Amino acid sequence: MKKQLVPESSSSRFDLLSEEIVFIILDFLNENPLDKKSFSRVSRSFYAIESRHRKFLKPLRSEHLTKILNRYRFVSTLDLSMCPRITDASLGVISGRCKEMLRSINLSRSKFFSHVGLTNLVMNCGNLVEIDLSNATELKDSAAAAIAGAKNLERLCLARCKSITDIGIGCIAVGCRKLRLLSLKWCLGVADLGVGLIAVKCKEIRSLDLSYLPITSKSLSQILQLQQLEDLVLEGCFGIDDDSLAALKLGCKSLQTLDMSSCQNVSHVGLSSLNSLAECLQQLNLSYGSRVDRALADSLQNLSMLHSVKLDGCQVTCSGLKAIGNWCVSLKELSLSKCMGVTDEGLSSVVTKHKDMKQLDITCCRKITHLSLANITNSCTSLVSLKMESCTSVSAEAFVLIGQRCQFLEELDVTDNEIDDDAGITDSSILAIACGCPGLEMINIAYCEFISDRSLKSLSKCSKLNTLESRGCPLITSSGLAAIAVGCKQLFKLDIKKCRNVDDAGMIPLAHFSQNLKQINLSYSSVTDVGLLSLASISCLQSITILHLEGLTPSGLVAALLACGGLIKVKLHASFKSLLPPLLFEHLDARGCTFQWRAKTFQAELDPKCWKLQLADAE
Amino acid sequence: MDPEERLCADTWTKSSSSSESLKTPPNNTSFNDFNTQQTFSFNNPFGAQISVTSNANNQKQMSDPQESNNTQDWDPRAMLNDLSFLEKKIHQLQDLVHVIVRRRAQSAGQADEILVQQQQLMTADLTSIIVQLISTAGSLLPSVKQTICPESSISQQFGVTNQTAGVSDNVVFQHNNSVNKLEDPSDMTGFFGAEQNCPIEDHEMKSDDDADEGENLPPGFKRDANLRMHMRGHGDEYKTPAALAKPHKESSSEPILIKRYSCPYIGCKRNKDHKKFQPLKTILCVKNHYKRTHCDKTYTCSRCNTKKFSVIADLKTHEKHCGRDKWLCSCGTTFSRKDKLFGHIALFQGHTPAIPVEESKGSAGPSNKVEQLEFKYKSDAPSGCSCRNVMDLEGSGEDPISYFSPLNFETSCIDGFQEFPRPPFEDSESSFSFLLSGSCDYPPKNGRYTGSNDME
């Protein structure tokens, strides 16, 4: 890893290699972002080669933009999603340096630029293929007109650009004829007219996100005439109902993915028309829609290419699940998160038939027991992701089965799985999982009260682990966390809220080893000023949540906030608002950091059983 | 002057009816009366003419309306009553005309004198009904009440003329045309009135009128074809090919002198000396044409401050949709509806929606409306009568008389004005528009429509 060890004299041997070969070597140095940094530090020539090699740039601070763009002259992809303070001036710098090299730019999360900067960018960077303007809520139609100047644009994301109307979309439709991907999610000013014009003018469209737009069948019929359309998202389009689906005459042969979640006006009657409308459909999302019963399952059984179905939050019947089990297709993904009515019988009939299942989400299916888990692990051995938060009727031994049978598992969510007073998940379960699933990347063991440092030490063997959530595990201490920090270098998200025994001793190894950490939650832990300040050495740290830290003083907090230069989001208790100097807020705000204030009172004793009982009553 | 007068009278009788014995005493007098007016008018171009007509008609009634004007308030119930009364009267009128038609058919062989007597009786009835009609219609709107008076007086004078003049197979048309003809002079006054009317008030009247047109009043039609289409709904007798045929044809079986007018501006295409002379159809056309092409554009749109007009009616037409056509294409075409704009863009390659300069344009619309409302209230206050008088006076002073130096006028345009009395059916379209607005009693608007319809 540390290329500095290569002696200076041997760099001449590297000189014998052509630049292309060094580039190929560099191509393999992508596992850890720090590797390339080390490479460039070897020598002057290495530095120059690395500068020429890099195509992708994701700066964390916009103030260094000029410097890094001077260094990396061949950057074609610029991801500025970490810089919330991109202004027209920054865009001027970018368009001046990158010119025709720039092909993709991500400006999501920034709302400080206007159509002036965009016009500048589009004029100078004629080869732009991709622009992401998500969350630019201030942009108006004039900005859309500026984007319309990018003739080569293929991918455009305008999610949450609420001020853009049909007129702006009309400009884009006319100007960007090569568009392949377009996201208009939450663009509330856009309706049938704008979407219809997109369908008329941009014949190359492959992917279209129209979530929450007030569109009706009028533009839907035009969209389905797009010959290349593969991915269509219609989440929360309340204007689409059974009648409008039934009225559609021409189907879209190319459509592969359809998201109709939260379309509350669509029932099995309308869905049955999908058989003719989208016969090549592969992925279907019907979350938060109508009841999943036999009629609905039967209406979809002719979709012969289907391999992914999401039914989150739907009322599910046993006969409906059985009918899904009888489909002739083999599902790879099934999501039944928060579905009422999922039983052992229904779920078992599905998983025993669909043996190729890779992703299964059974969050909050409280009725399933050991039996279901046995069936899942037995038949779906290639499972990659299993989410089973709050499956409170599954016994401890069942989790051992996961470790024994699902060796490809990468994601596991076992949040809050404990049966009343008996032990739910224990250290032995986690031990089995950590040993059996070496590829584990994400694990959530929140509120599993019986988990101790032993579990963390075993999990530290999973070197690919990047997300660990162990909220509300009172037995975990700093030594367990230190093991994780040493073993799991990829860690970028850590949640140790309500781990009362974690203190500054845990933060110091974390600050030293976990240089990829981006997000951390320390609320209710025993961390003090010292621990928080030590975290400042993690340069890419963006989001911290520090509520109810007893050892935290205002001065320590100020020091930490000033030291963490990359912070974007800080969640703090409202009492600090008056204790910190106002000038500090101005300074941090100028750096692009936002504060979220919480005024909740300190909860001394955690009592999960209380709300669990309430939930049981509600059901 | 005498020969001209006779010429006019001749054309009138010839074109109006097939019967040769129409020259009953009341007829003759009215003709004379009418013709004297015309002769006056052609001697004194535009402005002067108004004063003559308005004098002839207004002088006697001037006192009455002023008194009655201020006292009455507008009462919707009374209006409803008036409307139903109007309906009744129109039916009565129709019946009468039916009777006339029948009689005429029966009495083909009868002696002329008996016929004449019968017709006199009929026309007396008709006249009274028409007078009632017009006065009731006028009472519908208090603010313009006094304008009725001249018309009713005309109708008393000319009622007979109308009746005898246009007897034809098509009863409905007969009726409409007669009213038109009858009110032609006031039509003119209306037009000139509109000229001098202040823009605000006129605008208000228009919008007011728009609201009333569809709901309360019996349907009026700008074009005779529209009326014929409408009449089909009233029974099978209106669906026959004869009833649906253009009324022009029937009357034009008689030899009619087609009058055309020439622009006094030498070198103009509308001037008769021009190689490719394109004549103007009516005197109004001459007036509007002259103002549009040879005069300064003095009226500026108060909303957009860019468009200028020399004819105030054009300004009104523009103001009606100025600012409302906010959907703009890159090619410069404006649309009043967004979907029309998008249809246009979908159709053509390379056209894009144009972004308005200031994005917050939405606030401009409502504020305009408020202004309009305010104007409306203001203009309700003054009595229309006094307004009218002022208008007329100003009209005589300010009208384009200055542009027509007498010499110039006589040499270039004399034959045009000679034929001022129009042939009965020649421009029935504009006349219908008058009927429509006449029933609401809106001289300014009426004038405007006549102007715009007569446009070359």
TrEMBL record, chain A:
F-box/LRR-repeat protein 15-like leucin rich repeat domain location: 125-269, 279-403, 426-569
Stored Pfam families: DUF7885, LRR_6
Annotated InterPro entries: F-box-like_dom_sf, FBXL15_LRR, Leu-rich_rpt, Leu-rich_rpt_Cys-con_subtyp, LRR_dom_sf
PANTHER family per record: F-BOX DOMAIN-CONTAINING PROTEIN (PTHR13318:SF37), PARTNER OF PAIRED, ISOFORM B-RELATED (PTHR13318)
UniProt-recorded name of the protein: F-box/LRR-repeat protein 15-like leucin rich repeat domain-containing protein
From TrEMBL, chain B:
InterPro entries xref list: STOP1/2 (IPR044300), zf-C2H2_STOP1/2_C (IPR058196), Znf-C2H2_STOP1/2_3rd (IPR059161)
Regions of compositional bias (Polar residues) in chain numbering: 22-36
Primary subcellular site in the record, as a coarse category: nucleus
UniProt domain STOP1/2-like C2H2-type zinc finger: residue ranges: 326-355
Subcellular location: Nucleus
Region of interest called Disordered, as start-end residue ranges on this chain: 1-36, 202-223
Residues that span the membrane, as ranges: none
UniProt keyword Hydrolase present: no
Statement: the UniProt record of this protein carries the keyword Repeat: yes
Pfam families: zf-C2H2_STOP2_3rd, zf-C2H2_STOP2_C
Stated name of the protein: C2H2-type domain-containing protein
